[in-house]
Amino acid sequence: MGNSYAGQLKTARFEEVLHNSIEASLRSSSLVPRPVFSQLYLEAEQQLSALEGGSRADNEEEEEEGEGGLEQNCPPNPYRMHPPPEGCCTTDGFCQAGKDLRLVSISSEPIDVPAGFLLVGAKSPSLPDHLLVCAVDKRFLPDDDGHNALLGFSGNCVGCGKKGFCYFTEFSSHMNLKVTTQPKKQKHLKYYLIRNAQGALTKGPLICWKGSEFRSRQASASACSSSLFPPPESSGLPPPFPSEPGPGSTASILPGTPQAGPASDHASLTAAVGPAVFNGKDSPKHQPLVKHSLSAVPRPSALGILSNSGPPKKRHKGWSPESPSAADGGYPQGGGNRAKYESTGVTCMPQVGLVGPASVTFPVVASGEPVSVPDNLLKICKAKPVIFKGHGHFPYLCGNLNDVVVSPLLYTCYQNSQSISRAYGQYGASTIQPISEEMQLLLTVYYLVQLAADQVPLMEDLEQIFLRSWRESHLTEIRQHQQAPPQPVPPAPGAAVAPVTSAQLPWLAGLAASSCNDSVHVIECTYSLAEGLSEMFRLLLEGKLAKTNYVVIICACRSAAIDSCIAVTGKYQARILSESLLTPAEYQKEVNYELVTGKVDSLGAFFSTLCPEGDIDILLDKFHQENQGQISSSLTASSVTKSASLDVGGTPVCTSYHLEPHRIRPFQLAVAQKLLSHVCSIADSSTQNLDLGSFEKVDFLICIPPSEVTYQQTLFHVWHSGVLLELGLEKEHMTKQRVEQYVLKLDAQAQTKFTSFLQNSFQNPHTLFVLIHDHAHWDLVSSTVHDLYSQSDPSVGLVDRLLNCKEVKEAPNIVMLHVTSFPYALQTQHTLISPYNEIHWPASYSNGADLYPENKKYFGLSEFIESTLSGHSLPLLRYDSSFEAMVTALGKRFPRLHSAVIRTFVLVQHYTAAMMAVSGLSQMKNYTSVETLEITQNLINSPKRCPCGHGLMVLLRVPCSPLAAVAYERLAHVRARLALEEHFEIILGSPSSGITIGKHFLKQLKTWQKIDDAEWRPQTYLELEGLPCILIFSGMDPHGESLPRSLRYCDLRLINSSCLVRTALEQELGLAAYFVSSEAPLEKGARSEALESDAEKLSSTDNEDEEVVTEGSASEKRSPVRRERCRSRDSASSSLSSKASSSARCGGSPAQAQPAGPSQGDRARSPQPCGPAEEGRAPGERQWLRAGRGPPSVISGRGPGPAPQPDPGLKSGQWSIQASVPSSSSSGSSSSSATPAAGPLVLQAAQCSVTEARRRPPVVFLPKLVHDMVTSADGSGLPKAASLLPSHLVMWASSFRPLLSKTMTSTEQSLYYRQWTVPRPSHMDYGSRAEGRVDGFHPRRLLLSGPPQIGKTGAYLQFLSILSRMLIRLTEVDVYDEEEININLGEEADWHYLQLSDSWPDLELFKKLPFDYIIHDPKYEDASLICSHHQSIKSEDRGTRRKPEDLYVRRQTARMRLSKFAAYNTYHHCEQCHQYMGFHPRYQLYESTLHAFAFSYSMLGEEIQLHFIIPKSKEHHFVFSQPGGQLESMRLPLVTDKSHEYIKSPTFTPTTGRHEHGLFNLYHAMDGASHLHVLVVKEYEMAIYKKYWPNHIMLVLPSIFNSAGVGAAHFLIKELSYHNLELERNRQEELGIKPQDIWPFIVISDDSCVMWNVVDVDCGGERSRELSWSERNVSLKHIMQHIEASPDITHYALIGMRKWSGKTGSREVREPFSRCHVHDFIVLNVDLTQNVQYNQNRFLCDDVDFNLRVHSAGLLLCRFNRFSVMKKQIAVGGHRSFHITSKVSDSPVAVVPAQYICAPDSKHTFLAAPAQLLLEKFLQHHSHRFFPLSLKNHGHPVLSVDCYLNLGSQISVCYVSSRPHSLNVSCSDFLFSGLLLYLCDSFVGAGFLKKFHFLKGATLCVICQDRSSLRQTVVRLELEDEWQFRLRDEFQTANAKEDRPLFFLTGRHI
C-alpha cells in the first residue's frame, strides 16, 4: 500500500529530540531509561498509559478492511479463470456436476437450506435472462443498507449438494459463471429468493451491496477512532466469537466498542446490528462457525477462511473499485483510503481481512508464502494472540486459524492519522505533510513500551499521540497559515534534519524496546512479514515470549515502504482485546454456547475442589444436617419475638422507615420551566411551527424501553404526580388501567397503542400532544435494519419506526421530548434536534452559590470519582484485587472460556464462601475476598440491628441473562443449605419479567408499608426499600430502573467489555447514583469538594448543565412521584423526620444535623407541589404508593460515628460485624456501644441500616480495567472514560479532533459531539440530512438531558402540568370585574327608561330622561363626584377609599376564557387571521405607503400635519388624487346603506407602549366582517408598531404630541374625522349624494377591549318587577351592526355601553338605555359634536370632561345597558407609560405628588414630565391644600367652570359650562366651597361668576399658561372684588421654563 508520504522530512526539533533520546538511552546507566518520546508525547496525557477508556473507538471503524490503501497505487491484474477439471459439465446454467441451477427449472423443487443460509439468485454473464440458485451463508450478505456483510464467502451448491465453498472464485467456477474479470460476490449475487404463497421459489428483493464498497473506502474520519487495542475491559469482554476463531485468519478487530444497541440474536440481524465497527474478531471462524450449534452471528467483520487443502489462492483485493466511496455518505475523505464500513449494527468494527482466499479483502495485500498457525497454539500460550495489521502487505495465514485473531484496527488508525484534517486542509496539502509511516510505527513502539503490565492499549491514545506529534512538527507552518491568508505554498526544500528512514527504523524500535524488560519484543524481517510471524509462532511455542505482551514485526526491505504488524501476546491483553471485538449479541451467544455445551463444567469442578474439606457441596450438606434442628427453632423464636415487638406496640419501633410525601424539588421546577420556555420560543419564532394559541389542552404519551419494572415505575410516577387530573385527562377516581394508556412499553405490542395515539392526535387538532421518549439513548437503530431482516427481533428499529414516522414528524400538534442521561448518540452531525432545543440539567452550584437549595444532595459519577481522590476515607469506587487475580489465573487455565463466564463463576464462588464464613464455617474466609466478605456480613447482619428487620440491598449486576440465572440458582441453593432463607432474599431481576419474592419477605414488606391488600406484590425495585436482599440485575443495558435508598453495595464486577463506550459505561455507573440526605456530614471528598466540583465535570457540566453522568435511567428514577425512596425526592418532611435519627446515628454530632436546619424551612416552601401530595392519600391508593416510600438516598457509606468511617467492612463501627461469628447478640451489643446514645428512641433508628443508607451513597465495585479508566484522567483533566467513543451507533468524524475539556459545559459538550461525531449507517439519524444543513432540524423536537436518577421524570411531568396551565392561561385573560360605583346616590323614579323590551332607544322618550352626572365606572372610584340638583349627597355615602398607589394593583379582575369573538394581541397566530395580520409564509410582508394629510384648525392657530401609513391591502378605504398620488380622504359609507357585510363606522384606537400587548387584531371580534381600523400612534413609536402590525393602518400624531396624553389623541381623531366628513360630503355631493346622508359616526376604542357581551332579558310583562336575564358573548360585529341600525341614530351624539362585571344584577340591565357617562368604547357622532372638543392637554379623565361638555351642549349621550365590553388588564403601556422623574438626578428616584408643584422662581428640582400631567396628578392627590373647606363636604362642592378635573374622591365638584345656551345644573341652592378656573376662555366673564354663591372662607384656584395671563385673568374677571390674594399663594408646576409650566393663583373668599 505504498505510503505516498514516506520519506518526507520532519522539522529540526523533532529529529533533534529523536537523536537526543537515542543518545540518552545509550549513555544511560539505568536499566530502563525512559524514552524521550514518552516525555514528548505522553506527558500531557499523564501517560496515556492508563487505559484510556477504551476505545474511542469507533472510529476505527472499519475501515480497516477496505481496499483501501492499496487500490490507489496498484493497477488491478487481469483475471484468468483456472481451466475446469477434465470431464466436468461446462454448460451454462448447470454446475460442474451437471445439475440444473436455473430458477425456472427448480423453483418448485424442495431445496435443503442449512440453518443460517439463504437462497440467492446469481446472474451469469452468459445467461442474462436466468437466475442461478445458490445457498449462501447470510453472514456474508449485506443488510438493507448495504453494510455488515462479512468479508469472504461461504456457500453450497443446491444442484449437486456440494458444501463448504469458501471462496467465491471457486464457487463461481463450480457454477460455470464464465466471467472475464475476477469474480466478486457483489457483482454476481443479485437477488434474494423467496417462496410465494404457492410455495414456488421466486425472485425477491435486490441484494443491497452498496455498503460493501462503502466499507472499503474512505471514511477517514471514522476509521480510526476505535481503540487501538481494544478497550481495556477486564470485565467480561465479549468472547471471541464462537469460542475459537475461525480458521480464516481471524482478523479481529480491535476493540471497538461493542455495541450497545439491542442486538438481535438472529445471526443475520446481529450483523446488522452488531458493532460493525470493530469488526470484532475478524474472522470468527468460518466453517467452524457454521458447524457450531450457535451459528455465528454474522459479524460485520471480515471472515476469511482458508482451507488447508492446497496452496492458498491469491486473494483479490478489496471490494470492487467502482463501489461508491464512503465519502459519498458525507464522511470527509482523508489521506489513505479508509474503509468505512459501518455496520448497521451498533458498533462498527473495522473489517478485518483474513487470510487466505477466504478472507476477503484486506486493505493490505497479502503476498508471499502463507504462514501456518500452529495447531496447539492456544493450548500452549493460554491465550489467542491478536495480530494487528500495520503498514504494507500482510501475509496469508493458514492452518489453525481459530487460535489467532487478526484485526485491521491499527491499519485503520495509521490511515486515519495520515489524512490531513479538514481543519488544516485549507493550508494546502503540499505544505503540511502527514506523519510518516516510520514515525507512526516508532511512536507506536514507544507507546507500547510505557504501558503497564495490567494496561491494555487504546486506539484513542495512539491517535492522540500521532496528532500531537504531527502538530508539534508542523507548529510553525500552522501558525503561519493561521496568521496569513491561506494560499498554496510550495513545499519547503529539505528540512535541516533528515527524517527517520526505513533502514533506521528496526534499530530505533529495538532501542526503544530495550528498556522495557521484554514486554515489547521487536522482530526484524528481511523479506516479508511472513518470516517474522513464523518466528513469533515459534517463539510462542518454545515459551520464549512468556514475559512479552507485544511483538512488533517490521520488514523494512522494500525501498518504497515498510511492512509491519503488531501482535498482542500478553495473555491478559490478548484476551481482553479479542473479547472486546464481540457485539453484545455475539457475547451472549458465546456464553450461552459455553453453558449449553457443558464447557463450563470443568470450571465448576475446579471450584468444588477448592474447599478445605473436599467438595463444597458436601461441606454444605454436612452443615445443613448438623444445624437443621437448632436453626429452625432459633429462627422461629427470633421471628416470633420480632413480630411480637411489632404487634405489641402496634407499630414498629424503627423510626427510620417513613413515607416521604411527593413534592416537586426546586431543581425539577427549574428544569420544567426551562422546558416550557423552549416550547414557547419555538412558538414565538416566525416559522409558525407551533401555534400554541390554537391548543386548548395537553395530552401525552411516555415511551419507555421494554422493562416491566421501568414500566411499573413510570406508571407509579404518573399516578402520583397528579398530572392526569391536572391536564383534565382523567377524573378523580382513575384506575391503573386508565393510567396505562399514557405509558407505552416499546415492545412487540407497542404498534397498536401508538397507532391509536396518532389517530387521537389527528382527530384532536386543538390538543397539543407531547410525545416523551424516555431513556432516549436506547435503541437508536434505524428501522431499515429491521426491514431487511423482518424475521428478526421485532423490537429492533422500533423507536425509529414509531417515533420518526412521517405522521409524527408532520403533525403540527405533536411535540417530541427526548429524555436521557446519555444524549451523546443524539448529538451528531446529522441529529434532528436543534442545539437550541437542548435543555441540560442545571448544576447545583454557580460561583460557589447554591442555586437551588435542597435537603438532599445528588451523588453522581463525578462525586464518586471525587471520593477516590480524597485521602480522607475509603473511596466509594473500588476494585477487588484478589478477585481480579483469581480471574486472571483462571483465564490462563481455561483459555477457551469467555472471561464473563469465568468472572461470574469466581464471583458466585466468592459469595458462596462468604455466606459460609458468616454462617460459622470460618475456614471458608480464605476462599473469598475481603470485599465480598464485607458485603455478605453487612447483608446478613443488617436486619439484626433493626427492630423491624430492615436491611440492605446488594445489587449484583450480571448483564448476561443465562449467567444471571446460573448465579441465582447457585446462590439460592447455598442460602438454602445454610438456612439463611429468612435472613435475606435473592431476587432475579430481568427486563422482561416482574419481581418475585418469597412469602416471608412479602409479609414483611406489607407490614412495613402498612398494606392490607392480599393481592399486593412489589412491582418496582423502589418497593423493596429496607428489604435485605441480593438483587441479581440482568439485561445487557439497564433500562432506567430506580433502586431503593437501602441500596448499599453496587457490585459491578461482572460488567462486560461492551461498556467501553461512554454511554454504556456511564449507564452502568448510573445505577449507583443516589440522593444523599444533606444532614449527613459527607466525607470530605465526597461532599464538600465533590458536590461543588463542577457538578459533572465528567459529563460536562457547567452551570448550566450538570449533565453529569448522564442519566442512566430513563425513567428517571426519581420522578416526582417517587417519593421518598426515590432518592430523588426532596421532600422536606422526610428530611425533618430523619433529622433526629440521623444526628443520633452519627453520634449526635451537631454538625450533622446542622446543615439541614436552616435550609429545611425554605426547602419545604420552595418546591411547588404539582401533583397530589401524598399525605392525604386514601387507603385505597396506598398500594400505588408503596413504591415510593423509601428513604432518601444516602451519601457515603459507612462510618457510623461522628467521623465517618472509611470502610464498613470489617470495622466494628456501626456495622459492627464480627467476621466469623454471626451471632446477632454480639453484633447488636457492639453496634449499640459504637453509637453514642442520644435517647432511646433515636437509638433504634441509629441502628437501622435504612437510616445509614440514607446518608451515604452506595459503595461501587468495578472491574479493575473500568476502575482505572474512570479514575484516571487524560490530558484534559477529564476521566479517560469521558473521551471514549460516545456510543456504539456513532463514530468519530475525524481522528484530528481535540479532546473534550474539563471546563466544557453540557452545551459545549453537545456542540463538540455535534461537530466530531457522525452516525453509523445503522443509526436512525444516518440518512436524516446532509451535513451542515441547518434546516434539517425538526422544529418540534427537544432533548432533556440530566444525570441518572436525578429526577428527570418528575421534571417532565411537572413540565406537562405547567404547559397545560400555560395553554389554559393563553386562552384566558384577566378582565376587570368591578361593580359599578355610586349607584345608590339619590335616584328618583321618573328617571327610568321604562320600555324594557325596546331594542333601540325611542328618541322622544329618551330626550325626557335626565342626564345622570354621577360617574359609575369603577375605574373612577377615586375621582371627584359630580353634583347635580338631583342628588343630595351625604359624606357617608361614599365608602372607604383605597390608597391611590393601590389603584392599579388592587383592582379586581376575573379570569375569563377567550371566546371565538375576542380581540387579540400580537401573540395570537391562527390560520384564519394570518392574512389579516400580514404575516404569512406565502406572502411578502405587506408594503405600506406613507401619506401626509394636513388640515387647519383655528383653535391651535396653525395647520395640523398628520401622516397615514396605509398598507397596499387597505388602500381601497381611501381616496387618492390618482393611484399612488396625494391622499384626499377616507371613504365613508351612507346612512342609508343596509349591508350586513361590513361595519360602517371607522374604528380608531389610540395606543402607546402596547405594540405587543394591545388588542388590535379584530378579525375574530368582527367575525371576519370588513371594517376599517386605524391605530393612532405617537411618532416615536411608529416604527415598532409598524413592525408588529404591518397590515394595519396607522395614524401618526405630529411630533409635538410625543409627550401628550390621551386627550390629544382623542382631540385629533375627532377633528380629523370631522374634517374628513366635510371632504367626503363635498366629494360625494358631486355624485348627487346629500351631505346629511354621509355616515357621521366613528368608534373610539381603548386598546384593551377584549370581548363584548349582550344580555338577553325576559321581561315577563312590561310592568313586572320580575325579570330573568342571561348574558352571552357576541361579536363586535353583532353589536356595531345593532347600534348602527338604530332608528334616528344621527340624533345621538355619543353612544356607549356598560363595562362588564361579573357582579351585575338585574337592576343594572333592567333599563335597556341610560343617559349618562360613556367610557372605553364609544360611538361618536362627529357631525353633531362639531363644536365640542376634547381637551388636547388632558391625561386623565378626559372622557368624563368630554361627556360633560357634550351634555351641556344639549346633545344626547346614550348608553346601551344590555351591551357590555370586557376590558383586559394589561400591565404595560397606556397611562402607566408616563413616569415622573427628576430632571437633574440620574437616579430614578420616585417623586411624590406633593413635589409636583412649587413656588415660582424657587430652587425646587424640576421634573421631566408635562406640566398638565403634574397638575392633574397633584390635584388628584393634594387638592385639599387648595380647597380645605371642600374636604368631605359633599353638600358644598367646588364649582368647576368649563372643565372637569379630578380633585380626589373626598371633594365633590359641580360642573358648569360658560357657553351660551348650555344646559347646566341649577346652582341656586348651592353654596360652593371653592372655585376652580382652569385655562378659562373669553366665555367666562365677571358677570357669569357673580351668579354663584360661596361659603365664607371658600377658596379659589386660577390656573393659567403663564404668569402674565394669570394676572390678566384676575383683572378681567374682577376677582379681587370678592377674593383675597397673597403673594405667597402663587404656585407653578415643577417644570423648567422650556417645558412651559402652568401657574396657579389661590385666594380666599372675603
Task: Describe the protein's architecture and organization.
The structure is a single chain. This protein has 1950 residues and is an alpha/beta fold. Helices cover 29% and strands 15% of the residues. Strands 35, 36, 39, 40, 41, 42, 43, 44, 45, 46, 47 and 48 form a 12-stranded mixed beta sheet that branches. Strands 50-56-57-55-54-52-53 form a 7-stranded mixed beta sheet. Strands 14-13-15-16-32-17 form a 6-stranded parallel beta sheet, sandwiched between helices. The protein starts with 11 loop residues before the first helix and ends with a strand. Residues 1-12, 29-78, 211-366, 485-497, 632-651, 1080-1246 and 1434-1448 have low confidence and may be disordered.
The proportion of strand residues reads 15-25%
Structural class: alpha/beta
Shape: elongated
Taking the sheet with the most strands, its summary is: 12 strands, mixed
Helix content: 25-40%
Low-confidence stretches: 1-12, 29-78, 211-366, 485-497, 632-651, 1080-1246, 1434-1448
Rg, Cα atoms, Å: 44 Å
